[in-house]
Amino acid sequence: MGDLIPLFPLGSPLFPGVVLPLQIFEPRYRRLVADLVARPEGSGPRSFGVVAIRQGWEVERVAPAEALFDVGCTAVVRAVTPQADGGYRLVTVGGDRFRLLDVVVADDPPYLQAEVEWLGEEEAAEEAAGDADGLTPPPGGLTPVDDALAASVAQGSLDLLVGNVSDLFSRYVTEVAVLRSGGGPIEVDDEEEAELLADLGLDGLDGEGDDAAAETADSAAAALLRQVGDDARGLSYLVASAALLTTDDRQALLAESATRRRLAAESRLLRRELTLLRELGAVPVPLQRFATPMTPN
Known about the structure:
By secondary structure, this protein is an alpha+beta fold.
């Protein structure tokens, strides 16, 4: 038996450390928020699980365990603002990753719940092993000096990955900005598109041409990267959440437990996306725009 947590299916995965604002107006999710708010102080974090929807229709119309991806992330509630209509505005931030063991559907509470197992990060074990890919221990095992050397090699390779992904992400943001601007004003068709532009720091472009767009994007990318500083794990989750990737790509990055492997995958993905942007000359439209709405939320 795993831990039982409230579940909130969404069209895209949430990542640790990433801010997720939500407007709650569907009755079952109003109840979820009310239940969280009613928890006594000291009873643990006010949080619920966010998991991406695998199939493009209402989760309860099919077996929920089949409709959802199996790895999600908790959303920790940082602020709750009740609305006049009985709904809520929430500010949440991604917390811990988990794997779904089972999905519980009941009349009370009316929202989904899930039995989950918690997923740890593999950084410590990975560093201790010296990122063993390509490293063959000498006969008799590693001495303390060998351990220190392996750890140094591992940290060096991680630093190279961080620099590589940071550079690719900056170039990617600039390319998206230039294509969005098209030498004229950026048109935002709906709220979701505005949020995606905001995620990439592109919502403030003034449409004064490619040079202006690139300059604005460079500063936006730098600001985003400053938020994570030298935190390799934070960088990996920033890129996973901000890049205009498919849900499957994002889900694979969320399911990856080792920062080094997550960054290596992002390096490949960003190179792929840069190639597509340059060859097609267009920014991909998020697939969620074409999906049948799953819930009013």
